[in-house]
Structure to design on (347 residues):
């Protein structure tokens, strides 16, 4: 075991504080990563505050991790010391269920091992990326292309793959009309990726406050959902709607935006049920779907796609002692568009 510096929550209500945590010995198939940057995801906040169920404290969160390999186990073949790598939302899976065998380990039936707050294969509770080092089995470690700016790469590991996966699965591309609901951490990545895939991209945001950004990042159109005329004007006009909003929305209004065989995919989820009037699915043979992160294979594909297309998240780089303030700003949607912690300020 090694003892490393980290930031952790000690309860659901106290601010995060500097701590030390234990990392396991580097096993035969493990790599040790010296973390350079870690993104702040809204899920981190839900988790440490116990809003998604009880957690064991102290808990270090963070599942948008980039860093450098500093040690490899004797049987590691995929990575070398010095490689620039990333870790996203999961660090292992059962490897034997039908979904794992299909290469969709994010949907591991007994459950994938989350990067934090999950019971690890050895029974310990996984600890995330707000720390100086992490030990991860080699096939859950991604290669981060050098052409992606180092500090901006971290949010690709959650916000990037969470939006890339449904865009790819539902074939966003030339000739398809994609709407992105919400212009936050996930939404701004959906805009960039859908645009790079060649789709016609429309942002549906509460107000026009981020319109200039939306158009700059690749949107073709930008509408305010607070204006009821938006729903009349855009009725029956999208092949795919990616919903990044984690609040209860008027599903009938949003489903009415779908064209023939269109799909509404939620990657954001309110804690409450989201009522759907089934009749609103009959017209245009519409679908209502969900999507969760992406597989390791697909995450690597996303990283390579972003490198090829020069895509990186818009970030605000902060020091470790700013994490609690950053949380408050995330809750107020006061970030353009993702906070990234400079982990060197933790050491
Ligand atoms: Zn996340
Ligand atoms: Zn499995």
């Amino acid at each position: 075991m090694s003892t490393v510096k980290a930031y952790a929550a000690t309860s659901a209500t106290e601010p995060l504080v500097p701590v030390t945590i234990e990392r396991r010995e580097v096993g035969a198939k493990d790599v040790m990563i010296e973390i350079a940057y870690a993104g702040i995801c809204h899920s981190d906040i839900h988790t440490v505050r116990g809003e998604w169920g009880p957690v064991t404290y102290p808990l270090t969160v963070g599942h948008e991790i980039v860093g450098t390999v500093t040690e490899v186990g004797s049987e590691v073949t995929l990575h070398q010391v010095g490689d620039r790598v990333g870790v996203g939302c999961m660090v292992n899976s059962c490897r034997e269920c039908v979904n794992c065998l299909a290469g969709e380990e994010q949907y591991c039936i007994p459950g994938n091992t989350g990067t934090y707050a999950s019971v690890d294969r050895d029974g310990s509770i996984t600890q995330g990326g707000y720390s100086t080092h992490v030990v991860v089995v080699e096939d859950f470690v991604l290669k981060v292309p050098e052409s992606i700016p180092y500090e901006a790469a971290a949010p690709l590991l959650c916000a990037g793959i969470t939006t890339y996966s449904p865009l790819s699965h539902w074939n966003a591309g030339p000739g398809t009309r994609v709407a992105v609901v919400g212009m936050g951490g996930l939404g701004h990545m959906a805009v960039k990726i859908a645009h790079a895939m060649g789709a016609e991209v429309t942002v549906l945001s509460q107000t026009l406050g981020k319109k200039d950004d939306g158009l700059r990042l690749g949107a073709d159109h930008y509408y305010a959902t607070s204006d009821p005329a938006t729903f009349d004007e855009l009725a029956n006009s999208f092949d795919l709607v990616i919903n990044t909003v984690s609040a209860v929305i008027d599903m009938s209004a949003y489903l009415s935006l779908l064209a023939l065989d269109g799909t509404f995919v939620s990657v954001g989820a309110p804690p409450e049920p989201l009522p759907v009037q089934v009749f609103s699915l009959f017209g245009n043979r519409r679908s209502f779907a969900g999507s969760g992160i992406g597989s390791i294979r697909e995450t690597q594909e996303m990283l390579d796609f972003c490198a090829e297309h020069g895509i990186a998240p818009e970030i605000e780089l902060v020091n470790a002692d700013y994490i609690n303030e950053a949380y408050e700003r995330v809750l107020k949607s006061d970030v353009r568009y993702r906070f990234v912690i400079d982990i060197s300020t933790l050491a």
In short: The radius of gyration is 20 Å. DSSP finds eleven helices and 17 strands in the chain.
